[in-house]
Amino acid sequence: MVKNIAIFASGNGSNTENICNYFAKSSDIRVVLIGANNKDSFVVKRAENLGIPLFLFTKKDLENYIEIQKILTRNTVDFIVLAGFLLKIPEKMVEKYPNKIINIHPALLPKYGGKGMYGESVHKAVLAAGEEESGITIHFVNNKYDAGEIIFKTKCSVEKEDTVLGLVKKIRKLEKEYYPKTIALIIKNSD
Question: Which CATH code for domain 3-188?
């Protein structure tokens, strides 16, 4: 049976595009929808280039959730994947999709997680603390920022000479390699 994914994104959309390309040839997992809360984000253009339906929504729409749920239901969405999505998922949505909303964090949770810890702010904190390693954490979404059950972690070294940009490149490489594969494993093991 085919499983359908909706991807929610707020920014550039590089992870979104990577995930879509990964599943483009899959016979049992399809990306059917991309949701974005920022009409000016580059993910909007990426969705258009990929030929995947896009829907835009506001923070208020997300909190209200009724219209978003109608769209997800109409597209028979089984899993929601967050890819650089910066808004908190409402409790109603978490309840509707228990262990079916997947997120990636650009650090080794529980360190450097929580409200306000995203993008470069995470890498700055990692470097400022003098950490010797960082990495990615893939986890289920619950009602607290970055506190859901951890599914997968992988590490990279942090060198003394690393800059934020250098660390971003290391983390993106891990995201590109591991996020789609982990999503596939979660979905295939969900039956």
Answer: 3.40.50.170
Residue 106 in contact with residue 171, Cβ under 8 Å?
A: yes
- What is the C-alpha to C-alpha distance for residues 82 and 66, in angstroms, rounded to an integer? 19
Sequence letter at residue 150: I
Cα dihedral 123/128/134/139 (nearest 10): -60
Q: Name the residues annotated as catalytic.
A: 105
Give per-residue pLDDT as tens, 73-109: 999 999 999 999 989 999 999 999 999 999 999 999 9
Mention every residue, 6+ apart, whose C-beta is less than 8 A from residue 40.
none
Q: For CA atoms 39, 42, 46, 49, give the dihedral sign.
A: positive
Q: Whose CA is closest to 86, among 138, 15, 141, 10?
A: 10
Torsion, CA 177, CA 165, CA 56, CA 144, rounded to 10: 80
- How is the chain split into domains, by residue range? 3-188
Q: What average pLDDT does this structure show over 25-50?
A: 95
Contact indicator for 107, 79 with CB cutoff of 8 Å: no
